[in-house]
What we know:
Blueprint: E1 3-6, H1 14-24, E2 28-32, H2 33-37, H3 43-52, E3 56-63, H4 73-91, E4 95-99, H5 110-126, E5 130-134, H6 145-155, E6 160-165, H7 166-171, E7 187-192, H8 202-208, H9 220-229, E8 236-238, H10 243-246, H11 250-271, E9 286-295, H12 298-310, E10 314-319, E11 324-329, E12 332-337, H13 343-351, E13 354-362, H14 365-374, E14 379-380, E15 393-395, E16 401-405, H15 412-416, E17 417-419, E18 429-440, H16 444-454, E19 457-459, E20 463-467, E21 470-479, E22 486-492, H17 498-505, E23 510-518, H18 521-530, H19 540-549, H20 554-563, E24 566-569, E25 574-579, E26 588-594, H21 606-619
Parallel strand pairs: 1-2, 1-8, 2-3, 3-4, 4-5, 5-6, 6-7, 7-8, 9-12, 13-16, 18-22, 23-26
Antiparallel strand pairs: 9-13, 10-11, 10-17, 11-12, 14-15, 15-16, 18-23, 19-21, 20-21, 21-22, 24-25, 25-26
Bound molecules: 3,4-dihydroxybenzoic acid and magnesium ion (MG).
Amino acid sequence: MKTSIATVSIAGTLTEKLDAIAAAGFDGIEIFEQDFVTHDGGPREVGRMIRDHGLEITLFQPFRDFECLPEPYRTKAFDRAKHKFDTMAELGTDMMLICSSVHPRSLGGIDRAAGDLSELGEIARERGLKVGYEALAWGRHVDDHRDAWEIVRRADHPNIGLILDSFHTLGRGIDPETIRSIPGDKVFFVQLADAPKIDMDLLYWSRHFRNMPGEGDFEVKRFMQAVRATGYAGPISLEIFNDQFRGGDPARIAADGYRSLVVLLDDVRRAEPDTGAPRLPARVETGGIAFAEFASRGEEADTLARAFASLGFTRSARHRNKAVDLWTQGDIRLIVNREEEGHAATSWNARGTCVCDIGLSVGSAADAVTRAEGLRLEPFSQPLGPGEMAIPAIRGLSGSVMHLLDEGLSTVWEREFVPEDTGDRGAGMTHVDHIAQTMSYDEMLGWTLFYLSLFDMTKSPMVDVIDPDGVVRSQAVESRTGTGLRVTLNGAETHRTLAGRFLADTFGASVQHVALATDDIFATAEACAARGFEPLPIPGNYYADLAARVDLPDAVIERMRAANILYDHDGAAGFFQFYSRALPGGIFIEVVQREPGYRGYGAPNAPFRIAAQKRLARTKGMPAR
Ligand SMILES: O=C(O)c1ccc(O)c(O)c1
Ligand SMILES: [Mg+2]
């Protein structure tokens, strides 16, 4: 099945778009007329340039306001179409898209539309061209693919067919199952887009908020399953009108698009057995986070180590060959890497103290790598020292690394590390609850797609986190089983927010905090305090307000106040959390206790946490981050 993407989906000049689309792996493009018209070069040259990129022109579009016009508009519309047919011949494409008319003088009438299309089909046939008709969700008389199909059926012409676009069908809430009764040979072209479910004018929604399949809330897979059932075998093309993408990095957006298509087509193969075997291993089931590795040096590395000790961690092993310490507590492993060569050193040079590597437990590391390769994710490796194990890894957020560990690879701790004698039993923390990654808002969709396409994860609705100086959008992705990986993605739009400041200071997206789970937050807080841990101070007002709005005994609220513990309840269960102060690199540690059934991340408390962090930074005379 050929893959294609509309030029309108990608930012840049026509040449930049083509470079990005070709590099991403697509077979073809839908050329948007505007992208062609704005280019300084005739249609023959443009056609050649596209073919020189190894791409074919799958479609020329859009041709508007054609059908059902009274004279003299009707004749003019036919003349316009003939003119475009000339251009198409020079470009070297044989398929034109006509979208349903929004012309104020359009008369409507299914047979009138069919008659116009049939007559145009005859002109197209003489020139060896084909015309596909698409129902725009806001078309004046035709706004439903079922009506568009009836028009095409009555036009009854071999050069006239139907174009399906998932946005127009799913955006209007039309059941995609209705596609199954359309003959595949009359479907001339298929366009795909997803979108977030927001209540909005259809045209505005379509032109600004479409996104890649899997990035939104539409049932694009069910749409595509219905398309496959018709026997349609032509190109599958992304047509994504999105303001962020129009201003985004062409290579990144094109790669995301290609990835979304590969995943979707594989999901469809999996769901409809008669469409062929899946080509990729299934989405990878994640266990928890096996380790979080900090790149650091000197004084900052010492400060980190002291902070870990105050949180009840023990330096339980050192690497055989490297300046790498392993700090453990429960099933949690925090690594401090002071090496002056290799990935950690590169990360430290670029951004200072940071989380440079995340180790993830997976069912099968080999399957994870095969799937990642199929999605064209970037593999990572570096030279191994004596006795070191080859653990598969891929590039994660902004050049960071994600290692994939399965059962067979879990011997790495014994093989590569020398244990140290430890007496400390810890402060009761058991495992990593989640990591929080901060990125620019523009990167959020792409990273959501990364997690959802590689791993067996779902996303939760996006929430707004109110910072005193702006809004940060936050979205969680979590393993379907609920026991594996959990990540919150935080998208900052301004440098004035805590997240935005962190982003600027660390030169790109990275882990801003690591949240550790305990079964008894009060005991853990006490054990940490005994080790000299200083929590983020929370003002008294918070507890006065809490007492008024939640159903907790006064004595519990008093204990929370004493330990700077915050609380949330999501209707099902409660959640307790406290925070460290800022560590080197602006990173912080969160400690959480989830009551069984609590699904959130304490988002309602984020404004209080952020205000407290900014206040602390100000009183220390440090930049607020
Ligand atoms: O927004 C539009 O006008 C428009 C044009 C062409 C399409 O294929 C489409 O889906 C929308
Ligand atoms: Mg369309």
